[in-house]
Amino acid sequence: MKISILQIIIIISSVFLLGIFVFWGMKKRIKRKKGREIRRFNELVQTFIESEEIPVCLKDEELSYIFINGAMEKFYGISSGKIIGLDDFEILDEKTATKERKTDRKVLETKTFVTDEMLWQGNVYKSTKFPVDLLNGNFGVGTYIRSVSERNREKYLKTLLSIGDGVMVVDRKGIIEMLNSTAEKMTGWSAEEAVGKHYKEVFVLIHEKKEGIIIDPIKAVFNTNSMKELDSQVMLVARNGEKYHLEDSVAPISDDEGNVGGAVVVFRDVTEKTEKREELEFNSFHDSLTGLYNRRFFEEELIRLDTERNLPISVIIGDVDGLKLTNDIFGHEAGDELLRKVSEIFKKVCRADDIIARWGGDEFAILLPQTQKKDAERISNRIKDDFSKEKIKAVQGNVSMGYATKYQAEENIANILEKAEENMYMKKTLDRGQNKEDSFNMILETLYEEFPSEARHARKTSEICQKIARKMNLSDEEVIKVSKAAYLHDIGKVALDKEIASKNEYVVDNTWKEMQLHPVVGYRILNAFDHTVDLANIVLGHHERWDGSGYPQGLKGRETPKLSRIIAVGERFDDMTSNRSYRKVISQKEAIEEIKRNVGTHYDPEIVEALEREFVEER
Which PANTHER family is this protein grouped with (predicted)? Predict the structure, then answer.
């Protein structure tokens, strides 16, 4: 059967008309449902507005206030215009807000009524919260608040007595009515002693700074009838003189008519928290080792003080000589002591307002506003002179100084800083040779002053090794080198404890490992100076053995330098034939026989044979 065009048009028109009818029907039902929701919502809002005695509020699904009535405005002491759109954390203290947020979420999660108690401005209230179906299809939270009975207030008071914070309750005249156990510990007063006394006698507050002024928070509460936060810089002085940094608040205690009858003080010890915060603040701008300002702070002050009224501005750059050497010989503790010592001298010489900073590892910088170039020179010279009188272990104190001064406003302060640094490096280069020679002599003098027997042993060992080298037909250059190395072979003992350094280095005991370090330290010392660098490896190997059982590297046979092997024999021969505190002297013949017994294990046979020939011929 064929369908005509007219029939198709009629079918399409019928479907279209049916669709329009269904659409308008659905739209009317949605409108009626929406109207019912609006009326129900408006009725709820009207209930909120009409309640004059009971504080009522409504929060949305995000727990922000969308309605409060007049009673709630009075309860918070804030107009609705300032509350709408805010949440509890923007209105209440953090503790109360956290508690309110917890019960609000419980309402949203369970869709049930939740009751709770809250402390507000010294009074205890009961809050009832319930779910509210909002226009947008989500749920909000409605709340109404009522004052609790005296019995509940007593219950809450007992709770205050048991909490971890310090709690003190005073009457309108400032007489203490209650002190909980935490408050007893912090004030040093027992509740029995404190009750009946004026709070100023027990709760003694001071400002953390001597010149600071404390506003009495309890008196302020009585004057304003509103809660007051304690000053962040307030400290409690306990009965025994101990001081605590405090945190928290004071709230009025009012009756149902709003008359203030006293105050409750809730406080906690935040000393540790305050000290950590202050430590963080200090460390952000200070060097932890020296206590001076750090480079970051110096650079900020350089920009801040670079003004015309501070002209002339002088900058001093100092570089501590011998830090690496000190670290290598005596360890980083001695290096740290060196840096602290020079820091003390910087602070002693400079003015209180001068900016002194640790610029880098061994570099320091001083910023001197309103300081002429001649004064910067005087300060530099005094620092250098004072530090030269110091000695850290066996290292002579020395610091290279450079300075520059800005006189004209248009000069770039960065260029002044760079010029001061260039001058410092120039002086360091010019004094390098003399400073190094002085440092080396100081180390040697320190060793031989503390251990006079080491000086004699060094001379004798040098003579013996020189004779052995000649007997072996070594070149004059090698003879001189072994003589020098032998004289310095025990220089590393300068880093040892005096008692350990005086012991027999061939005896294995609990100090053996420390004794084994002295060839390594000697190597570091000699390697640090140009005139002894070629002796470093020789000294390093003088305790190696022919069979590889020696130290510090465990070298075997000819792996050990020949001159080191000569010193091993020469210093052992002198050790046995000289007076020592740890054993009796033996004859040269006995010493040679003892050394010969260790040929092939401890000593090179060729060198022992040269030693024997030398002393047989002498006899």
Answer: CYCLIC DI-GMP PHOSPHODIESTERASE PA4108 (PTHR43155:SF2), CYCLIC DI-GMP PHOSPHODIESTERASE PA4108-RELATED (PTHR43155)
Q: H or E stretch including 444?
A: helix 413-450
Q: Are 118 and 127 in contact (CB under 8 A)?
A: yes
| pTM over the 0.70 mark | no
> In sequence order, what are the residues at sequence separation of 6 or more whose Cβ sits closer than 8 angstroms to the Cβ of residue 396?
322, 388, 438, 439, 442
The mean of the pLDDT values for the chain is: 83
R_g over Cα of the chain: 44
3-state DSSP assignment of residue 505? coil
How far apart are alpha carbons 400 and 333 in whole angstroms?
22
Residue 333 CA, distance from chain mean position: 18
- Which residues neighbour 339 within 8 Å (Cβ) at sequence distance 6 or greater? 289, 290, 320, 323, 358, 362
Q: What are the angstrom distances between the C-alpha of 277 and each of 111, 271, 467?
A: 43, 10, 69
* Interstrand relation of 395-396 and 399-406 (parallel, antiparallel or unpaired): unpaired
Burial letters for 42-60: b for 16+ Cβ neighbours within 10 Å, e otherwise?
Answer: eebeeebeeeeeebbbbbb
Burial class (CB in 10 A: 0-12, 13-18, 19+), 611: buried
Can you count the helices (H) and strands (E) in the chain?
24, 18
Report the distance separating Cα 29 and Cα 546, nearest Å.
Answer: 108
Question: Is the predicted pLDDT of residue 77 greater than 50, yes or no?
Answer: yes
3-state secondary structure of 206: strand
What is the residue type of 488? Answer: L
For residue 328, the SS3 value is helix
